[in-house]
């Protein structure tokens, strides 16, 4: 990758989530886990699926990937519910940042955060890229 392309990227994050672990959190903590971790829109989306745990795992991995791309993890102004994902009219995932996470992205010189999610029966993975 040449220097021009490198300069266009302000941050990258990746994460993998174990579907069985997320399923166990859902079974053991239910609404408390959902309330602490996901936005209402994320809960509505994931709960509408045949196997919600797979989709929650994908969203969980995306949140982790975004926090890594922001360079903070979940600390300071970046929280689990402060980074979220919704699906646009074409079904593609799009990142949504609250005020604190958006401020951190701007500190990095980022203009947009892109997110991609994939999942299988046992694992979900996501990548987040902050572009300038």
Compact description:
This protein has 132 residues and is α+β, with helices and mostly antiparallel strands. The chain has a single domain (3-131), classed as Ribosomal Protein L22, Chain A.
Structure, explained:
It is a single chain. By secondary structure, the protein is of the alpha+beta class. It has one domain (3-131): Ribosomal Protein L22, Chain A, CATH 3.90.470. Helix content is 45%, strand content 28%. The chain has five helices and five strands. The protein has a three-stranded antiparallel sheet with strand order 1-5-4. A hairpin with a 5-residue loop joins strand 2 (83-87) and strand 3. The radius of gyration is 15 Å and the shape is globular. The model has no long low-confidence stretch (mean pLDDT 95).
Total separate domains? 1
Helix content: 40-55%
Secondary-structure element string: HEHHHEEHEE
Strand content: 25-35%
Within the largest sheet, what's the order of strands?
A: 1-5-4
Work out the radius of gyration: 15 Å
Keywords:
three-stranded antiparallel beta sheet; two-stranded antiparallel sheet; 5 helices; globular
Write the layout of secondary structure elements.
Blueprint: H1 3-7, E1 9-18, H2 19-37, H3 40-47, H4 52-69, E2 83-87, E3 93-97, H5 99-107, E4 112-119, E5 123-131
Antiparallel strand pairs: 1-5, 2-3, 4-5
Helix pairs in contact: 2-4, 3-4
